[in-house]
Structures are given as structure tokens and as C-alpha cells.
Amino acid sequence: MMTPVTLTIAGSDSSGGAGIQADLKSFAALGVYGASAITALTAQNTTGVRGIHPVPASFVTAQIDAVFSDLDVGAVKIGMLAQAETIVAIAGALKRWAPRHVVLDPVMVATSGDRLLAAEAVDALKTMLFPLASLITPNLPEAAALLNEPVAASEPDVARQGRQLLAMGCRAVLVKGGHGHGTESIDYLIDGARSIALAAPRIATANTHGTGCSLSSAIAAGLAKGEAMETAVRNAKAWITDAIAAADRFAVGHGHGPVHHFHKYY
Fold it and tell me: What is the pLDDT of residues 116-127, one digit of tens each?
């Protein structure tokens, strides 16, 4: 019996709420073994990012190769990439190892508003990694930024932007509605044939640090366990909604605190 394994390729969050720390917590909470390849170190806390130290691209490659050469990776989650050289290295590694599933969270700006991806790296992200992705998971502002358009304000606009992103080569797009308005947070899963609206109650809390990282990791965990894409997305959304609802059980930091990854256990 093989243990499901998911690899996160992302940046490190020194405060533990986002990045690889959130990814590994998500994997563990959902019963999947987590491995990691670190793309950048960040000096950050719940109030903001104080510094970013990119890992050399060659060492990112070395980490990925070390994991794939030994572990049976069922899915890859990609988060913070920081710079174009890292994107080139990851694209090359993914082509060599050909993982079954790749969930790409196009992390551009932190919850605090700090930029996490160099502006000149955005084109490389779209042209080199989107075509390798099973799913990309932009939020509303990220989808707009990737397309150089205003943030979508209606369901038809969200669906149109999702289809434009889909045309860049990925197999499916999940446009996350957490930055929207109203009593429900509605995500839209868009593939070649349909657009599925996934609604959940909008939760009033400031503790949303790491939400996007954790959701994409939860989807990757589901795919590693053999779930179909729609099932993995639905299960991950239900799980992250509960993690956000339980976030106020924590008293961590003075800014946007973390979600509660282990809400089922304590």
C-alpha cells in the first residue's frame, strides 16, 4: 500500500501561516505525506513581509530532483516563485519528471499587500508553467492582473476571465471569490466544457493568512489521493471554509492571523 505524497514548491513563511508551512500543515491535516522544495525564504509575520531571499534556481532544481528520484509524488502544488529564473528551473524539472497532477497557485501579492512575484516574471509564469498545470487557482485580483484587466465584478466577467486563462494552456481554472462581496464566497471552476459555481458562507474574520496556499494544497492532496478534479476542489473548499471559520480560536500575531489547519482535531 503506497502512501499518497504531495510536493509543495513554494516560499517559506517565517511566521508559519502561509507558504510551505501552510502547505505541509494542509497535507498533514488531510492525510497526505508532504515534501517540499523551497523557492525563497521570507522574513514575514502576520503584519507583512519584511524581506525576501530567493533560493538559487539551481538549488531549487536540486531539491525537486532529490524528491522525485526517491518519492512517488502523486501531485505537485506550486506557490510563491519570486523570480523568472526559478520559473525556468521548475518548468524544466516538471517536464523531466512529468508529475500526474500540478496545482499552480499564481501567488503575486501576499495577504498583507506585499508583492511576492517580480513583475518581469509574470510572462514566464504564463508561458512556461500554465501549460504544465492541471489547475491554476488565481483569486479575483490575480486573475485580473494576469490578464491586464479590471477585477471582474459579475459572474459572466469571472467566467470570461477564467476562459481566457484556460486558453493559456492549463487544463482547468479555479477563480477564487474570497475578495468579492456579498454573503457568499463563490469560486468558479472552469474547464473546457463548463463553469461550476462553488458557494460557501462568507466568514467575518481578519484571520485569513495563508488561505490561498492552504486551498491549493488541499486540492493537490485530494488529487494525490486519487480524487477527480471537481471532487478534490469541492472537498478542499469545504475544508478551507471550516479552517477559516475556526481561525478565531487562535490568538496569533497582531495582523492577519492564520487559518486553523487542524480544526478537526483541536
Answer: 677 778 899 999
Q: Is position 176 annotated as part of the catalytic site? A: yes
CB 213 within 8 A of CB 105: yes
d(CA 162, CA 173): 6
Residues β-bridged to residue 161: none
Known catalytic residue at 212: yes
What global pTM score does this model have? 0.95
pLDDT tens column, 105-145:
998 766 556 666 777 788 999 999 999 999 999 999 999 98
- Residue 162 bears catalytic tag: no
Alpha-carbon distances, residue 3 vs 23, 43, 198, 226 (angstroms): 17, 33, 29, 12
How many angstroms separate the Cα of 105 from the Cα of each of 11, 144, 171, 176? 12, 14, 14, 11
**Which one is catalytic: 11, 17, 212, 222?**
212
Angle at 206 between CA 40 and CA 82, to 5 degrees: 15
Residues 207 and 256 sit within 8 Å (Cβ to Cβ): yes
Catalytic site includes residue 208: yes
The predicted structure's pLDDT at residue 110: 63
Whose cell is 493537490? That residue is: 220
Pairing mode, if any, of strands 75-78 and 173-175? Answer: unpaired
DSSP states of 81-134: -BSHHHHHHHHHHHHHH--S-EEE----B-TTS-B-B-GGGHHHIIIIIGGG-S
Please identify which of the residues 16, 162, 180, 210 carries the catalytic annotation.
Answer: 210
Cell matching residue 10: 513554494
Question: Up-side HSE of residue 266: CA atoms within 13 Å toward CB?
Answer: 1
- Catalytic residue status for 51: no
